[in-house]
Specification:
Shape of chain B: elongated
CATH superfamily of the largest domain in chain B: von Willebrand factor, type A domain
Strand content of chain B: 15-25%
CATH topology of the largest domain in chain B: Rossmann fold
Structural class of chain B: alpha/beta
Oligomer: heterodimer
CATH class of the largest domain in chain B: Alpha Beta
Largest interface: A-B, 28 and 40 residues
CATH superfamily of the largest domain in chain A: Class I glutamine amidotransferase (GATase) domain
Shape of chain A: flat
Radius of gyration of chain A: 37 Å
Order of helices and strands of chain B: HEHEEHEEHHEHEHEEHEH
Radius of gyration of chain B: 22 Å
Distance between the termini of chain B: 27 Å
CATH topology of the largest domain in chain A: Rossmann fold
CATH class of the largest domain in chain A: Alpha Beta
Largest sheet of chain A: 10 strands, mixed
Structural class of chain A: alpha+beta
C-alpha cells in the first residue's frame, strides 16, 4: 500500500493521546451529595440503564477513535498497490533527425544500427503491444496497438529525414502517450541527456553514437556585389577530431553564364573555414555548393539556392510595439521583420516601413504604412480623431488588393481619424461619418497606406479577427510586388514550412525525389509544405524552392553512446504490472458511517 | 459566609419588632390535666371597646363613664409566656453546600433558629433549643431573657454536622420535656427516611403548633453535575455510580419537586406550617418577608 500524503499518517500519533484525554474526560468523578435519596428516585430508570450506558460510553469512544483513524487514513490518500508481471506496453520513439543518417565505424547508419537493436529487443518481447512514434512528430508516423512483429516491420520501413530535432521538446509532447505505456524506448543519437523517465515510465535509450568524421556546410548565402555580380558565401565546419582537406565545388546553372568553380579548404580538427566566391554572373537560376568528400553524413555536404521569388521581404516596424502587428508579420515566412523605436534609426534597405504612432519628418520613398498618424504627414493631414463610446462600422469605398480576404462588415472601430488629403489619395475603408479607417496614396516612387486608428482592441476589433494577418499579408505582398525579389537565388531550411501562393487551380508540390509532397492549406489562399529532405521542390506553378540541411547540431556527429543496463532492459521487457486502487473513497464512506454511528450513539446515550 | 454574619445588630433591631405568631393557645391542655400547671404570664390592659350585653361589668371603666358618659369596657390581653422549642437538624447533609458562596444549610438554619429565638426572647417567651442527628438529640434551654441570645449564638457557632437525619427522637424528646403543647420550629432538610412523619402527625394531633423550615441548597434544587459520577451519600456513605445527563437532571428536579409537594401536602393535612427556602435566598428577606408571609412571625 502506498500513500499519497504519508506525512498525514503522523497524525495517528494523536489517537492514543486523544483516547487518553477522552478516557480521562469520561472518567467518573466522585462527588458527595447531601443524600442519595432523591437521586435514587430520579435515576431508577437511569440505574437500570447504567450498564447500557457504560457500554454506550465505551462504544462511543471506540467509534470516535475508529472515525479518527479512518479520517486520518483517508486524508493520507492510501492506494492499494498490487504488482504482477505483465506483458509490456512499449512506446518506441524513433529519432528520425538528420544526424541519424550518419554512418558509424561499421559502415551502417546510426539509424540502421538503432533499428537493428530495437528489432532485436522486439524479438524478445512476448505479447504486449507497441506504439511507434517518429520524431519530429510532424514527420510521423504515429502508430498504435502494434504487435512487436508489426512494430519491428514498421520500424524497418522508416528512414531518417534531413530534419533537425529538439528531442527534449518532442519527448515532452510524447508524455501523453508515455502515460499509457509500461516503458519508453527512445532510438536516438542525441547528445543531450535523456530523462530517466517520461510521464513516470522508465526510458530505455538505444543509441549508436560512435565518434564519426563529418564535415558540413555551416552557412551558405548568395548575394549581389556592388558591381551587380553574384557572389556565394560558404562556411564549412570540420566536426572530426582530425584535420580535413575539403574540395568545394560551386556550380552556377541557368542564366547567361553557367559555370563551375572549385576550391580546396583545409580544415583543422573541429575547425571552420569560409570562402566567398565571385560567381562572375549577374543572374543565375541555381547556385549549388558541394563538398566533394566521403564523410559520415552526406546530407550536409550539399547546399543549393534557386531563383524562386520566395526571397525575404524586409519590413521595418517603427513604434512602441504592437504584438498584433508583429505576430501577424511573423506568421509570414517571407518577412524579415526589424523593430525600431525611433524613426531616425531606420536606415535604407527595407521593402516596407511601418510607422505606428510615430512619423519621420520626411517620409521615405517606397512602401510605407502610417498607423494613427497625427498632424500633417506626407499627403495626409490628420485633423482630428473621432472617439465615441459606440463601435462604428466601416464600408469599402474603393476596392483594393489590400482588402483581399478582409471582411469589412465585421470590422468595428471606436476611434477613426478625420483626414484631409489631396486628390491623389483614395479612401479604402470609411465610416458613415466619412471618417477614414484605411487610405491609400500612390505616386511614382512611393505608396503610402494610412490606418486611421491604433490597431489595438481598445480602438478596433480588427486585431482579433482572422482577416488581420491576411491584411498584413496583402500589405507585404503589395510591398514586395514588382520588386526584384526573385533575382537572387535563395533557399529555406529543412524542418521549416515553406509558404507559397498558388496562382490558381489545385496546388501541388513535387519533392526532390519526384514524389508529391502533402500540402497544408492556409488562410488567404496560401499553401504550405514541410520539407523533410534537402533538395529542390517545385510547385505546380513551376516555382522552385531550394531547401538545405544546414543544421549544425545535426551535423555534429561526434559523441558517444551508452549501453542500457541489463536491469533496465529486463524491466522494460517484463514490467511489473502495478495496479493501484485508491482507498480514499472507501475510507471516507467508513469515516462518515462511523461519524454517524458516533453521533447516533452519543444522542441515544444522552437522551 | 460564617454563621454569625447572617445575624447582625441591624437585623436584631428589626427582629425586635416582630413576634411569633402562635396559632394555638397553650392553655388548651389535654383533658384531665390541671390548669395550674401553666407557669408565668400576666394580664395587661390592651384597649377599650363599647360595652355590649354580656360583657363582664367588672371591666367597665368607670372613670371614662364619669368623664364622657360613654360605656366602654377595658380589654385585657394575657401576657402569656409561651414555650418555643427550636429544633435544628445538624446531620451531615446540613453541611451543604460546601463549595458555594451561599451559606451552608446548617449556617442558614442556625441563623433562622437564632432569629426566631431572639424574636421569642424579646417577647419574654421561654425558648428551648435542641440539635439532632443520627438518633441523638442535644438539648440546651435558652431561657426567656433576650440577653441569652448571645449564648445561644455561641452554641450555634460551635455546632458540628454529622450523622443521619432523624427527626423523630427530637420530636419525641420535645413531647416528653414539655408535656404540653408548645410551639415547635423544626429546621431541617427533611432528608429523613425514618418515622418522622408519624411522630409529627402525633404531635400535631396533640395540639403542638409545629412549623417546619425546610432549608435546601440551590444545588439540591437544580443539580449542576453531569457526566459519569460516583455520588457519595454524605450521611450514609453509600455510593451510586451514575452517568448524569440532562434528562437525569430533569428527572431529579421532578423528584425533588414531588418530594417538596409531598411534604407540603402532609403538613397541610396535619396543620403544620411548611416553609421552604434555599440557602441562596437573602437571609433577611427570608426572615422579614417569607416567615411573615408564611405566618410564623408577624
Amino acid at each position: 500500500m502506498t500513500f499519497g500524503h504519508p506525512h498525514i499518517l503522523l497524525a495517528l500519533l494523536l489517537v492514543p493521546l486523544l483516547a487518553l484525554l477522552y478516557v480521562r474526560r469520561a472518567r467518573k468523578r466522585e462527588m458527595t451529595v447531601p443524600s442519595l435519596m432523591l437521586w435514587k428516585t430520579a435515576a431508577t430508570t437511569g440505574a437500570e440503564n447504567a450498564g447500557k450506558r457504560t457500554g454506550a460510553l465505551d462504544l462511543t469512544l471506540v467509534l470516535a477513535l475508529l472515525f479518527l483513524v479512518a479520517a486520518i487514513a483517508a486524508a493520507s490518500d492510501p492506494v492499494l498497490v498490487t504488482r504482477s508481471t505483465a506483458s509490456p506496453a512499449l512506446l518506441i520513439i524513433a529519432d528520425r533527425s538528420a544526424s541519424m543518417a550518419a554512418r558509424t565505424n561499421s559502415g551502417e547508419t546510426r539509424w540502421a544500427g538503432t533499428v537493428e537493436d530495437a528489432a532485436a529487443l522486439l524479438d524478445r518481447v512476448r505479447g504486449g503491444n507497441v506504439m511507434l512514434v517518429g520524431l519530429p512528430l510532424a514527420t510521423g508516423p504515429g502508430l498504435e496497438d502494434l504487435t512487436p512483429a508489426q512494430a519491428k516491420s514498421a520500424l524497418e520501413q522508416l528512414a531518417p529525414t534531413d530534419m533537425p530535432l529538439d528531442l527534449m521538446e518532442e519527448l515532452a509532447r510524447c508524455a501523453g502517450l508515455a502515460g499509457r505505456a509500461s516503458a519508453v524506448i527512445v532510438l536516438t543519437d542525441n547528445a543531450a541527456p535523456i530523462p530517466e523517465n517520461v510521464a513516470g515510465k522508465p526510458v530505455l535509450v538505444l543509441s549508436h553514437r560512435e565518434p564519426s568524421a563529418n564535415v558540413a556546410i555551416d552557412a551558405f548565402e548568395v548575394s549581389r556585389g556592388d558591381d551587380g555580380k553574384l557572389a556565394a558565401f560558404v562556411a564549412v565546419r570540420n566536426y572530426a577530431a582530425r584535420p580535413a582537406a575539403v574540395p568545394v565545388t560551386i556550380e552556377v546553372r541557368g542564366g547567361p553564364a553557367p559555370g563551375v568553380q572549385k576550391q580546396d579548404l583545409e580544415l583543422a580538427p573541429k575547425g571552420r573555414a569560409m570562402l566567398t566566391a565571385d560567381l562572375g554572373v549577374t543572374d543565375a537560376d541555381t547556385v549549388e555548393v558541394r563538398l566533394d568528400v566521403r564523410d559520415d553524413l552526406a546530407s550536409d555536404n550539399r547546399a543549393v539556392a534557386v531563383r524562386s521569388g520566395a526571397g525575404r521581404v524586409r519590413v521595418a516596424y517603427v513604434g512602441r510595439g504592437n504584438q498584433f502587428i508583429e505576430r501577424a508579420l511573423q506568421l509570414l515566412p517571407s518577412v524579415a521583420l526589424s523593430h525600431f523605436r525611433l524613426t531616425r534609426d531606420v536606415k535604407g534597405g527595407f521593402d516596407l516601413i511601418i510607422y505606428d504612432g510615430v512619423a519621420p519628418e520626411r517620409l521615405p520613398a517606397g512602401d510605407v504604412v502610417l498607423i494613427n498618424p497625427a498632424g500633417k504627414i506626407g499627403p495626409f493631414e490628420v485633423q482630428d480623431a473621432v472617439a465615441d463610446d459606440a463601435w462604428v462600422r466601416v464600408a469599402v469605398v474603393n476596392e483594393s488588393p489590400l482588402l483581399e480576404h478582409v471582411d469589412a462588415g465585421a470590422l468595428r472601430f471606436k476611434h477613426l481619424a478625420s483626414v484631409k488629403t489631396d486628390a491623389g489619395a483614395r479612401t479604402l475603408l470609411e465610416s458613415a461619418e466619412t471618417k477614414a479607417a484605411l487610405m491609400r496614396w500612390e505616386s511614382a516612387d512611393a505608396r503610402i497606406t494610412l490606418v486611421g486608428c491604433r490597431l489595438v482592441p481598445a480602438e478596433t476589433n480588427w486585431p482579433m479577427l482572422p482577416s488581420f494577418p491576411l491584411f498584413w499579408a496583402n500589405i507585404v505582398d503589395d510591398a514586395a510586388g514588382g520588386k526584384r525579389r526573385s533575382d537572387l537565388p535563395s533557399f529555406s531550411f529543412t524542418g521549416e514550412y515553406v509558404t507559397f501562393k498558388p496562382k490558381g487551380g489545385q496546388p501541388a508540390v513535387t519533392g526532390p525525389d519526384g514524389a508529391r509532397i502533402p500540402l497544408v492549406p492556409g488562410a488567404g489562399a496560401r499553401s504550405h509544405f514541410l520539407p523533410t529532405t534537402a533538395g529542390i521542390y517545385e510547385t505546380s506553378d513551376g516555382v522552385r524552392y531550394a531547401v538545405n540541411m544546414i543544421h549544425p547540431p545535426e551535423s555534429d556527429t561526434s559523441g558517444f553512446g551508452a549501453e542500457p543496463s541489463p536491469e533496465l532492459l529486463e524491466s522494460v521487457l517484463a514490467p511489473s504490472k502495478t495496479a493501484g486502487v485508491s482507498l480514499l473513497p472507501y475510507l471516507a464512506v467508513v469515516a462518515l458511517a462511523l461519524a454517524f454511528a458516533h453521533w447516533f450513539t452519543s444522542a441515544r446515550g444522552g437522551r | 459566609m460564617s454563621r454569625n454574619s447572617l445575624i447582625n445588630k441591624d437585623l436584631l433591631a428589626k427582629l425586635e419588632r416582630l413576634e411569633i405568631a402562635f396559632r394555638h393557645s397553650q392553655q388548651v391542655r389535654p383533658e384531665g390535666e390541671r390548669s395550674g400547671a401553666h407557669h408565668g404570664g400576666r394580664i395587661e390592659f390592651a384597649d377599650y371597646r363599647e360595652y355590649s350585653p354580656g360583657d363582664d361589668f367588672r371591666h367597665i371603666d368607670w372613670n371614662v363613664l364619669s368623664r364622657t358618659n360613654d360605656l366602654v369596657v377595658k380589654q385585657f390581653e394575657r401576657d402569656e409566656q409561651y414555650l418555643i422549642t427550636l429544633l435544628l437538624d445538624r446531620s451531615a447533609s446540613m453541611a451543604f453546600p460546601q463549595e458555594d458562596d451561599s451559606p451552608s444549610k446548617i449556617e442558614y438554619g442556625a441563623a433562622c433558629l437564632a432569629a426566631l429565638a431572639y424574636i421569642g426572647l424579646a417577647a419574654r417567651q421561654r425558648v428551648e433549643m435542641a440539635t439532632f442527628a443520627g438518633g441523638s438529640c442535644e438539648w440546651f434551654p435558652v431561657g426567656s431573657d433576650k440577653s441569652r441570645i448571645f449564648g445561644l449564638i455561641d452554641r450555634l457557632r460551635a455546632l458540628e454536622t454529622g450523622g443521619t437525619t432523624s427527626m423523630a427522637p427530637a420530636l419525641e424528646g420535645t413531647f416528653e420535656r414539655s408535656r404540653q403543647p408548645c410551639l415547635i420550629v423544626l429546621v431541617t432538610d427533611l432528608l429523613d427516611e425514618g418515622r418522622s412523619r408519624e411522630t409529627l402527625a402525633t404531635l400535631a394531633a396533640k395540639g403542638f403548633d409545629i412549623s417546619i423550615l425546610h432549608v435546601v441548597s440551590r444545588d439540591e434544587v437544580e443539580p449542576a453535575a453531569r457526566g459519569r459520577m460516583r455520588l457519595r451519600d454524605a450521611e450514609t456513605g453509600d455510593i451510586v455510580s451514575l452517568r448524569i445527563t440532562d434528562a437525569d437532571a430533569a428527572e431529579y428536579r421532578r423528584a425533588f419537586r414531588n418530594f417538596g409537594e409531598d411534604w407540603s401536602s402532609f403538613c397541610g393535612k396535619h396543620d403544620v406550617r411548611f416553609l421552604s427556602t434555599t440557602t441562596d435566598t437573602p437571609f433577611e428577606d427570608f426572615i422579614m418577608k417569607y416567615l411573615r408571609h408564611g405566618g410564623l412571625v408577624r
